[in-house]
Design a protein that fits this description.
Blueprint (H helix, E strand, L loop, with lengths): L1 E6 L3 H10 E5 L5 E7 L4 E7 L3 H4 L16 E3 L4 E3 L2 H6 L5 E4 L6 H10 L3 E5 L6 H14 L3 E4 L6 H12 L5 E11 L10 H4 L1 H5 L2 H11 L4 E9 L2 E10 L6 E10 L3 E11 L2 E10 L2 E12 L5 E2 L11 H16 L8 H20 L3 E2 L2
Parallel strand pairs: 1-4, 1-7, 3-5, 4-6, 7-8, 8-9, 10-13
Antiparallel strand pairs: 2-3, 10-14, 11-12, 11-18, 12-13, 14-15, 15-16, 16-17
Amino acid sequence: MVRIGIVGVGFMGMTHFEGAMKFKEDAATGRRKLVGSKLKNAKVTAIATRDAKKLAGDWRSIQGNFGPRGGLNDLVGVKAYADYRDLLKDPEIDLVDICLPTDQHEQVVLEAIAARKNVLVEKPIAVELNAADRMVKAAEKAGVKFMVAHVLPFFPEFAYIADLIKTEKYGKLRAAHFRRVICQPDWSAGMSDFKKLGGWGVDLHIHDNHFLSSICGVPREVFSRGALMDGLVNHVHTSYVYDDPHMAVTCVSGGIAAKGLNFAHGFEIYLDQATVVYGGGTYDGQWVGDRPLTLLTNSGKKVTQPKLKGGTEWCSAFTAELQAAADGLSTGQIPAMLSATMARDALKLCYAEAKSISSGKLVKVS
């Protein structure tokens, strides 16, 4: 049994907890009681937060850009630590799941590694490349597992196209376009400091850079146009340059959408013998699936909405992500999608894009 301790109970900490655990609501009180784990051979056994109300199970102050607002939880059976260092000292924790703001990642990751704990940290791995390098090297030296929670590959639509590209069921990838945009966030105080987030190029768009690297490999160069603020990416349109001159991969991402467009993402994938499209987003607080995942083949007659693997809850992708992390600890083989080095490579792409916007030139990716 992999015993997980979550450090940080903001929106992402709540999301990881929801992804891992099962609840039953008491109709009379509105409180939810824990009734088990959604994970096989793994469960959350501890949380750490400085917020006394959250320690007591009152999570009603938590709100994100997708999913429901937090509620009232009966946390009987879950250890509650006001100081995360006490959680790190707990000998009954096998995996420390760090869901703190990005600028706090390095300190807590390094402390967890020093405590000889395996670590899963929310994306992005860090704001600064040097910080990412220090964490990776520390984990290697200590001999502990270090994973980064890039959840996008675990969403069914993205897992589906990753599998099509890997298996070449409809031929090779010829072109791809991705989209990920938000308005200026007002749902979390932790999202208010643009610099601490690394800009939307790091906080938001790194999802795309990570996923693209996983399905296409790290590009040789990038050419980006967009808007910088304090030297950080606020909005970006990028062309990724690969050795194959006939493969075109692009993405648009940023935080300049009008208020009400809380979040939107999607893709168009062009294979030799098929095209796959998908799009959806939260518009004025409501999720709208404007382009359900659709596969169109070269026959011109067949249009299908493929059956997808995975659950249908708002947090199901996080359940799959946490299951993959737990399985990686059990087998000793970290899943590629949670690789810290792949997360660091995605961060390198973010900085290459900022350099390209600033210079107006193609930038090589080291």
